[in-house]
Specification:
- This protein is α/β, with parallel strands linked by helices and 293 residues long.
- The chain has helices at 11-19, 39-49, 63-66, 70-91, 123-138, 158-166, 185-199, 223-233, 265-271, 278-292; strands spanning 2-6, 25-29, 53-56, 94-100, 142-147, 150-151, 171-175, 179-180, 183-184, 200-201, 204-205, 211-214, 221-222, 241-245.
- The strands form five sheets. It has a six-stranded parallel sheet with strand order 2-1-3-4-5-12, with helices on both faces.
- The chain is globular, with a radius of gyration of 19 Å.
- The relative contact order is 0.15.
Length: 293
């Protein structure tokens, strides 16, 4: 089975590249190999490769920078997925596309379901929601996987930032009024491959399972609470203090959802998949990092 993966060098892309393999011919592209804003080249590349599965783990994710770069954000987060989706339909391929909790405004007080009203607060969230709409509108087999608060041992993310700062400072000031579910990218990649296996039905796909699914670790915590657990589980607790601050004390160009916990019940019902509690996943990630050292 031929798979084309976009986002090779990102957190999800690296994890997917490590897991995909047995029985699959994977062609992975990073931004250096293929500029997703080049729509003609993207379409030509997909038609030439003729994959059976397209996985889009690429996105413009610099949320604050996006506020002043809306045209490029639209090309990468909305228009590129549209091309992937239409080519996938032409080829009879499955598209797996990743989205985000930023499609919601954060005013809820209970976990968002896949059917909850969307209301993105900024350019990034609006572009990702538009990308979802494009994938659905194309009408081919697809999985739109919304995840949130991703971290891993690779790339730039909250976990790595906290570990770096813990080696430089004795106090970390972290926002305490934004609530979400920290999610280990490797677990998202593993679950995605499980979903792919279920979607395959001989020479076709189980199109009745196409749709949007939420995929995060279980439980909820603030960024400060997440930082506190990172400090404690990495052995810095006796030396580094984590001080809570408000969002107002840490202003950013882009507004963040104050509450972005996602209900993953649909994923469990349809595919029998539950990601572990975020604390368990954090322990797994740190243990894996120690194993690589």
């Amino acid at each position: 089975m031929k798979v084309v993966l976009f986002g090779r060098t990102g957190q999800l892309g690296l994890s997917l590249s490590a897991i995909l393999g047995a029985g699959m011919e994977v062609r992975a592209y990073g931004r250096d190999e293929l500029d997703l804003s080049d729509r003609a080249r993207l379409r030509e590349t997909l038609l030439r490769q003729e994959p059976r599965v397209i996985i889009n783990a690429a996105a413009y994710t610099a949320v604050d920078q996006a506020e002043s770069d809306a045209a490029m954000v639209k090309r990468i987060n909305s228009e590129a997925p549209a091309i992937m989706a239409h080519v996938a339909r032409e080829l009879g391929a499955l598209l797996i596309h990743y989205s985000t909790d930023y499609v919601f405004d954060g005013t809820a007080r209970e976990p968002y379901t896949e059917d909850s009203p969307t209301a993105p607060l900024g350019v990034y969230g609006r572009s990702k929601l538009a990308g979802e709409d494009e994938v659905r509108a194309a009408g081919g087999p697809h999985l739109i996987l919304r995840t949130a608060w991703l971290y891993s041992n690779h790339g730039r993310n909250f976990l790595k930032t906290m570990l770096r700062l813990a080696g430089e400072r004795d106090e970390l000031r972290v926002v305490d009024d934004q609530i979400g579910s920290p999610t280990y990218a490797r677990l998202v990649a593993e679950a995605s491959v499980q979903m792919l296996a279920v979607m395959i039905d001989g020479e076709s796909f189980r199109t009745e399972r196409s749709g949007v699914y939420h995929m995060t670790c279980q439980g909820a915590v603030s960024w400060r609470g997440f930082a506190q657990s990172i400090i404690e589980m990495s052995g810095h607790a006796g030396r580094v203090r984590v001080t809570p601050i408000s969002t107002a004390q840490y202003p950013t160009p882009a507004r963040r959802p104050a509450y972005s916990v996602l209900s993953c019940d649909k994923l469990a019902r349809s595919f029998g998949i539950w990601l572990p509690h975020w604390e368990v996943a954090l322990g797994q990630c740190l243990a894996h990092a120690r194993g690589l050292a």
